[in-house]
UniProtKB/TrEMBL annotation, chain A:
Keywords assigned by UniProt, alphabetized: FAD, Flavoprotein, Oxidoreductase
Domain Acyl-CoA oxidase/dehydrogenase middle, chain residue ranges per copy: 122-218
Residues of the Acyl-CoA dehydrogenase/oxidase C-terminal domain: 231-378
Protein family per UniProt: Belongs to the acyl-CoA dehydrogenase family.
A Pfam family annotated for this UniProt entry: Acyl-CoA_dh_M
Protein name: Acyl-CoA dehydrogenase family protein
Catalytic activities: a 2,3-saturated acyl-CoA + A = a 2,3-dehydroacyl-CoA + AH2
Single Gene Ontology MF annotation: flavin adenine dinucleotide binding
All copies of domain Acyl-CoA dehydrogenase/oxidase N-terminal, residue ranges: 6-118
Cofactor(s) required for function per UniProt: FAD
TrEMBL record, chain B:
GO CC annotations, alphabetized: cytosol
Source organism of this protein record: Terrihalobacillus insolitus
Function: The electron transfer flavoprotein serves as a specific electron acceptor for other dehydrogenases. It transfers the electrons to the main respiratory chain via ETF-ubiquinone oxidoreductase (ETF dehydrogenase).
Key words, A-Z: Electron transport, Transport
Assembly and interaction partners: Heterodimer of an alpha and a beta subunit.
Family classification: Belongs to the ETF beta-subunit/FixA family.
Pfam families, A to Z: ETF
GO biological process, one term: carboxylic acid catabolic process
GO molecular function: electron transfer activity
SUPFAM superfamilies: Adenine nucleotide alpha hydrolases-like
Protein name per the record: Electron transfer flavoprotein subunit beta
This protein's record includes keyword Transmembrane: no
Ranges of residues in domain Electron transfer flavoprotein alpha/beta-subunit N-terminal: 21-211
Length: 380, 257
């Protein structure tokens, strides 16, 4: 067994850590407070090749692997959950499905600008009445003269206001048993009939763009169908499996960031004539936090490793997403506790970590859904 | 242009440093590229982008220095050379490093050598100038601007906050100061390409040097951390009394006056 990172993975980790600390960190409070998507930071991340880590050079990517990508997400999450979420969603949800299931032509046309960071992509699955029950999709796409005509509504879609393309899931017909066939279709956001509004006022990840999409007689060419027309549902399950690794990595970053801040503060803060880190109750909190962070890291890395080695990773990515997101929430919560009243203040940042962490127990499958996925893998 | 960068691996002085038996403990220390050498790296790449040629980054170090060399390759250097002295040399000083580099450059056709102004660990600032002396080429230290126009080189250097303008010629050695440029982050494609770039490893033997040739000329007697800062004292009472007490403390206790 080998827990060492490769030189490339190590260098990626170091570079992203420096970039995150120097460029993103100083703006994290403002990004959250003003709920403003940091478009310029994404331009810079694009130039550094961060948006194309897990894609081959032929499509404008960097030729890295899932683990290197997870390391990058963790480092960004450590300083800014908003930037981390938009980053993870752009790569895992906006771009990856085109890489997994697209034709050569779709990859050249649609993946390349996403991988180079020239444009952002979104994934529109959730609808007002179809969340955890993604199979309950109401959006429809009907073929008319070699064009899909799409009608429906999507909600809570990350990056949509800034996206060049949205992969939309829609019902395209019924199978022999009369069940809905769900397909994925690439919809350029400048197509007539696409309306995007970002009016949500969110608890956390406030600088990450989240939008509502209304699709009204949106016409796209038949060639924009992504992958197998019959297997759209399976495809997005696979996409979500991969996406869970990145959400887990983001949670890990928030957990690590919370631990770092709590440890530093505990050593500096004096009460009753001594550092609060000399009190056993504070030490035990820190010990538990450190242990959970490391355990989360182990499962995140393992899930990424399984994916990179073409092994099954559905169960492990659900483990990782569930454990890391719950760890992030607990760790951020304890970090506030260790900071006392100061922790309740925006300036000390740990309150933001808690608000950001909460999303990770909901997005890309709630904790309940992760447990359902795991139970199904156990044969229940 | 044949551009060379002298790079040193140093421990990160912003991380915790432990000293044991007059030596800095390697275990647990974080190692980085000497920050001033990053300015040298960046300038080398910029000069190559402007004038063409090749950038070779050279380090005298050990097996672990490969990490910093790979980072330099990821930033954009074309080639890297690791002169690994781990097996051959126990003690080193600036003389050792200069002697080794002199032997390395012996058969090289050099236009420009860039080094850091100082290394943040020992902070001697000697290796660059001493190497230039040995190679018999001009050198300029603490530069903050570098313009190469044919054979002529126009330089601005930092002199205690003021700027001095210097004109000189190639071949040349410069040492780089903060303010010269903003070192780039190694990009992801750069990181991936780095593994395919040549990294040559040399030992003393390959440079026709014996252990005795590079024996240090100085001896380190002791290495210790500065004393921990003690808590300050706030004087109280009438202003006149406070002044008197302060003068007396400065005189008797800390003996500065
Ligand atoms: C900031 C943000 C960004 C998002 N980004 C995207 C995006 O980019 N693309 C996208 O498609 N979606 C996105 N989402 C949507 C997200 O994936 C959904 O909110 C999530 O899947 C939950 O769906 P829901 O909100 O409809 O909740 P519901 O499904 O209504 O769930 C409500 C509660 O019921 C529980 N529950 C539901 N079904 C079961 C069951 N069978 N057994 C037990 N408990 C159950 C849930 O766990 C939850 O606790 C985003 C959401 C947010 C908040």
């Amino acid at each position: 067994m080998d827990f060492d990172l490769t030189k490339e993975q190590e260098m990626t980790q170091k570079m992203v850590r420096t970039f995150a600390e120097e460029v993103i960190g100083p703006r994290a409070i403002e990004i959250d407070k003003e709920a403003k998507f940091p478009e310029d930071i994404f331009k810079e991340m694009g130039k550094l090749g961060l948006l194309g880590i897990p894609f081959p050079e032929a499509y404008g990517g960097s030729g890295g692997d899932t683990l290197a990508y997870a390391l990058a997400v963790e480092e960004i999450g450590r300083v800014c959950g908003s930037t981390g979420l938009s980053y993870a969603a752009a790569v895992s949800l906006g771009a990856s499905p085109i890489y997994y299931f697209g034709t050569e032509e779709q990859k050249q046309t649609y993946l390349t600008p996403l991988a180079t960071g020239e444009a952002l992509g979104s994934f529109g699955l959730t609808e007002p009445n179809a969340g955890s029950d993604a199979g309950g999709t109401k959006t429809t796409a009907t073929l008319q003269n070699d064009e899909y005509v799409i009608n429906g509504e999507k909600c809570f879609i990350t990056n949509a206001s800034y996206a060049k393309t949205i992969i939309v899931t829609a019902v395209t017909g019924k199978d022999q048993k009369g069940k809905n066939i769900i397909s994925a279709i690439i919809v350029p956001t400048d197509t007539d009939g696409v309306k995007i509004k970002n009016e949500y006022d969110k608890m956390g990840v406030r600088g990450s763009d989240t939008a509502e999409i209304v699709l009204e007689d949106v016409r796209v060419p038949r060639e924009n169908l992504l992958g197998d027309p019959e297997k759209g549902f399976k495809q997005f399950l696979y996409t979500l499996d991969g996406g869970r690794i990145s959400i887990a990595a983001l949670a890990l970053g928030i957990a690590q960031g919370s631990l770092d801040k709590a440890l530093k503060y505990a050593k500096e803060r004096k009460q009753f004539g001594q550092s609060i880190s000399s009190f056993q109750s504070i030490q035990f909190k820190l010990a538990d936090m450190a242990m959970e962070v490391e355990l989360a890291r182990n499962i995140v890395w393992k899930a990424a490793w399984l994916k990179d080695n073409n092994r099954a990773f559905t169960k492990e990515s659900a483990f990782a997403k569930l454990y890391a997101s719950e760890t992030a929430f607990r760790t951020a919560n304890e970090a506030i506790q260790i900071h006392g009243g100061y922790g309740y203040m925006r300036e000390y940042e740990v309150e933001r970590y808690l608000r950001d962490a909460k999303l990770l127990e909901i997005g890309e499958g709630t904790s309940e859904v992760q447990r359902m996925v795991i139970a199904r893998q156990l044969g229940c | 242009m044949n551009i060379y960068v002298l790079m040193k691996k140093t421990f990160d002085t912003e991380e915790k440093i432990a000293v044991n038996n007059g030596k800095i403990e390697d275990d647990g220390a974080e190692f980085i590229i000497n920050p001033y050498d990053e300015y040298a790296m960046e300038e080398a790449i910029k000069q190559r982008e402007e004038h063409g040629g090749e950038v070779t980054v050279v380090t005298v170090g050990n097996e672990d220095s490969e990490k910093q060399l790979r980072t330099a390759l990821a930033m954009g250097a074309d080639k890297a050379v690791l002169i690994n002295i781990e097996e051959d040399v126990e003690e080193t000083d600036q003389f050792t490093t200069v002697k080794i580099l002199e032997a390395f450059f012996d058969d090289k056709d050099v236009d420009l050598i860039l080094a850091g102004n100082v290394a943040i660990d020992q902070a001697s600032g000697q290796v660059g100038p001493r190497l230039a002396e040995r190679l018999n080429i001009p050198y300029v230290t603490t530069i903050t601007d570098l313009q190469i126009k044919g054979e002529t080189v126009e330089i601005e250097r930092d002199v205690e906050g003021d700027i001095e303008k210097v004109e000189t010629t190639l071949p040349l050695l410069v040492t780089c100061q903060q303010g010269l440029n903003e070192p780039r982050y190694p990009s992801l494609p750069g990181i991936m390409k780095a593994k395919k770039k040549p990294l040559e490893e040399l030992e003393l033997d390959d440079l026709d040097l014996e252990e005795e040739d590079v024996e240090p000329k100085t001896k380190t007697i002791d290495v210790f951390l500065p004393p921990e800062k003690e808590a300050g004292r706030v004087l109280e009472g009438e202003l006149d009394d406070q002044v008197k007490e302060l003068v007396s403390l400065l005189n008797k206790e800390s003996k500065v006056i």
